[in-house]
Amino acid sequence: MRGSITDTATPGAPASRSPRHIPSGGLRASWLNLGWKLLLAAIILLLMSIGSPLSWLLSWTFLNPIQATLLVWGVLIVGIASGNLFEGTAGLRWAWGALSVGAYVALALPTLVTNTPSRMIDALGPVAALTLDAHLGRRDLQRALRDWALVISLALYAALGVQAMWLVVGVFSNDGPLVFLVAVLLPPILFEAIMLALRRISLTSGNLLAPVVALLLATLLSTVAVSMNLLNRQTELQWLVLFGVIIATLIGGGLLVSYLTRPLVAASSGAYRPTPTHRSVDIARALVELSHGPILISLALYIPLRLLR
Fold first, then answer.
1. Residue 7: pLDDT band with limits 50, 70, 90
2. pLDDT tens digits for range 157-185
3. Could you give the residue ranges of the DSSP H alpha helices within the chain?
4. What φ, ψ does residue 56 adopt, rounded to 5°?
5. pLDDT of 61 over the 60 cut
6. pLDDT cut 90: percent of the chain above it
7. 3-state class of 99 per DSSP?
8. pLDDT score of 262 more than 80
């Protein structure tokens, strides 16, 4: 597949795709990419807080501004990733991209509307069958099976991520957007900023010390921010330490997995494209890369939050 993570000799791509290297085209481009992510994060939080015309258009589904923002966020993730991962003619890529987006909406929308995670499981069987049927008329069935697996993977990944992010926001009621910022959106941005700063002072990304320091600092700062916003100042020390250890483990675990899987995200974001990028392409790449960390952190927080509800 075009831009596939399994390719070993994509023309124009770097010779090494180790997760220790940020495929950025230089330190300046990396800072610019981080700037796009900060802008996109601010827009996401703004739309969650005040809504958008799209929220009114989706009012028939009983979605509030936060749910509408998360739903559209997932649509963009799936659409951009499918455009970079599917191969073939432009028309075929558009068709499979539309199928991926449709499968995502069919999985995510019932869960968001009813706030019942089991609805996604109920929808998974029909969605898998219908998307498979769309490939049965193709001559190359081996290729069709790979494309179908990609359709389901993208749809399920985004749907699970959106459901997990909605739970993180919804469980904290009025403080949901703030908790989402400090516990989900902030850690990956902090991690990347610290990594770039360490590269700037010659602790290159190829050095294992840089990601370790960035991971520890980003986790520590995020844990402190979450504790300050959620815990009462009169909380006893042992409970404060226990809460901090749990939150740090979940956030740090999500950050670690997101760092180790950066080559996968780079392929789906179009970072390995041999053609020159344009501003719209840069924004699309930043959105996919920005989304990966928050989705993994939200999934890490999902299980304990479900147990506490």
1. very low
2. 999 999 999 888 877 766 677 888 888 99
3. 27-50, 53-57, 65-85, 90-114, 118-133, 141-171, 176-180, 186-200, 209-230, 237-260, 262-269, 279-308
4. -70, -40
5. no
6. 27
7. helix
8. yes
Q: CA–CA distance from 67 to each of 21, 74, 111, 137, 193 (Å)?
A: 35, 11, 10, 36, 28
| CA atoms of 224 and 218, how far apart (whole Å) | 10
Q: How far is CA 185 from CA 52, 124, 165, 254, 291, in A?
A: 20, 28, 10, 12, 9
Q: For 286-298, what is the mean pLDDT?
A: 92
Contacts of 235 (CB under 8 A, 6+ apart): 243
Residue type, 78: V
Averaged pLDDT score across all residues of the chain: 79
Cα angle for residues 23, 40, 98 (degrees, 5° grid) = 80
Q: Are 210 and 198 in contact (CB under 8 A)?
A: yes
Residues sharing a CB contact under 8 Å with residue 253, sequence separation 6 or more, in sequence order: 300
Label residues 169-182 b or e (16+ Cβ within 10 Å = b).
bbebeeebbbbbbb
In which residue are the tokens 């780079």 written?
A: 266
Report the distance separating Cα 177 and Cα 45, nearest Å: 7
User: CA–CA separation, 33 vs 289, rounded Å?
Assistant: 9
Please state, in angstroms and rounded to a whole number, the distance separating the CA atoms of residues 289 and 269: 7
Tokens read off for 219: 């986790």
Banded pLDDT at 8 (limits 50, 70, 90): very low
What's the pLDDT at 309?
55
